[in-house]
Write a structure and sequence with these properties.
Length: about 450
């Protein structure tokens, strides 16, 4: 069954009702450009199929980047460790991609290169794989040998004119991280076979993808035995605003805060009522207000300023890489957009605090697997639960690094290797002093933050 989510997700509601009524299907595929809605639907499906208290032993999360069809099939056919439902979650699978989705991959690389380099690298390597190109051939200006006409003919669209702005950067990122190939994008027959033959009673598969080729045989198999939900941008201003308002309302409710009507309008006007830009700006807003429950128009003006993309988080990515030049460029852009200096400082402090927690974890020697730099799939399944157990406090809400998404923890551990604990402690102390100075003296915030970046990224 294929449903396209055109509004606030009525079809997802029907799927959830079917699960609640005891009529789940073996497989669910969630995909589309609206990443926030895909993630929200994924969590809603997980909650319906497998409540959090039952996930420790009966939820199997596989990294879509590396999990091939055979691995997914084998995991699906393994009985659950405890009686009841078993869910296999594969996030960001390339199994449904093809040359038809190359324009979507190119767009994703451009959009994620600053705020999520790991995602950009993954999608770029998949683009190369599907296009039949090799990283070593494109490195060292080798990409210039591919004419604009050939690039557009292979990838689709007219993106060759803009590739100089992003292609050398993503090539450098791939080489710096030792990534030169993509896995898991090959034959899908093993997964097709187990879906056709039927999964063991109580076993379910959730797949997410940014884009799919609906002509692929695996897509048709999933549609026949399961549910496909597509989250694509809706047309029409009224529908766009309704979808956005529903998404913001749910995100605000989860945070325990309230957004006044004037604040909602101010937020929408600053982000063009675009879903991705608004949810990104909302993250900035919630960080800014802290413990304040009622979020008003003044908070939006102070926190979001003129920003339409939430680029404040591009600054933390540059700090993680110790890229002082890029950090200074992003900082200037943020001030030009009118982003409040206290927002910039708060996000920087949170990132450096995460790096410090990660550095202390590494230095403690308590988790030997961390030193081996495991891939994300193994980290999420084997190491993260140990870290969460060691840092969490039973019966209390977790905070700090232990309360973060496993991918955030994984990235913090990777990035923390570039810093000494003493450096991070000194940085936090400097930010605390700046916070006090910004609130009590006429000190120039731009100059203070520039000096901090130059010290932090020598």
């Amino acid at each position: 069954m294929v449903d396209q989510e055109g509004g606030s997700a009525p079809n997802l509601s029907r799927v959830l009702k079917d699960i609640a009524s005891g009529r789940p299907v073996p497989c669910y595929l969630l995909f589309g450009e609206e990443e926030f809605l895909v993630k929200t639907a994924q969590e809603n499906l997980l909650n319906a199929l497998l409540p959090p208290g039952e996930r420790d032993l009966n939820l199997f999360s596989l990294d879509g980047e590396t999990a091939d069809a055979g691995q997914i099939a084998a995991t699906l056919m393994t009985p659950p460790l405890l009686p009841g439902r078993k869910v296999v979650l594969v996030d960001g699978t390339p199994l449904l991609q093809s040359k038809k989705t190359l324009p979507d991959l190119e767009k994703s690389v451009r959009e994620h290169l600053d705020r999520n380099p790991a995602r950009a690298i993954r999608d770029f390597l998949l683009l190369l794989h599907l296009a039949g190109w090799h990283l070593e051939d494109l490195a060292a200006d080798g990409w210039k040998k591919i004419s604009p006409e050939e690039w557009n003919r292979t990838v689709g669209g007219e993106g060759a004119a803009e590739r100089e702005a992003w292609l050398p950067r993503v090539l450098d990122a791939c080489l710096a991280r030792g990534r030169d190939a993509v896995q898991g994008a090959e034959a899908t027959e093993p997964l097709e076979a187990v879906l056709r033959e039927g999964l063991p009673e109580g076993n379910h598969l959730i797949l997410t993808a940014e884009a799919v080729d609906k002509r692929k045989r695996l897509f048709h198999v999933i549609a026949e035995c399961g549910v496909v939900l597509e989250f694509s941008p809706v047309k029409g201003e009224a529908k766009q605003r309704q979808r956005l308002q529903d998404a913001v309302r749910e995100k605000i409710a989860q945070s325990g805060k309230k957004l006044t009507p004037k604040a909602w309008l101010a937020l929408g006007e600053k982000t063009g009522f675009q879903l991705r830009a608004t949810t990104s700006a909302l993250d900035t807003l919630l960080t800014y207000v802290g413990d304040k429950v009622a979020v008003d128009e003044a908070d939006v003006e102070a926190a979001v300023g003129k920003s339409r993309e939430g680029t404040v988080f591009a600054l933390t990515a540059a700090l993680d890489r110790k890229d002082g030049r890029e950090a200074l460029l992003v900082l200037k852009d943020l001030f030009d957009q009118g982003v409040n200096p206290l927002v910039i400082l708060a996000v920087m402090a949170r990132e450096i605090r995460n790096l410090l927690h990660a550095r202390l974890l590494i230095d403690s020697g308590r988790f030997a697997e961390i030193e081996r730099e495991p891939d994300y799939g193994r980290f999420q399944k084997q190491i993260y639960p140990e870290i969460k157990s060691a840092l969490g406090v039973a019966g209390k809400k977790e905070g700090g690094l232990a309360g973060q998404h496993p991918y955030v923890v994984y990235q913090a551990l990777k990035n923390a290797r570039r810093f000494k604990a003493e450096t991070l402690v000194d940085a936090l102390e400097a930010l605390a002093e700046m916070d006090l100075a910004f609130k009590s003296t006429p000190r120039d915030p731009a100059l203070a933050l520039e000096r901090f970046i130059l010290r932090f990224c020598p």
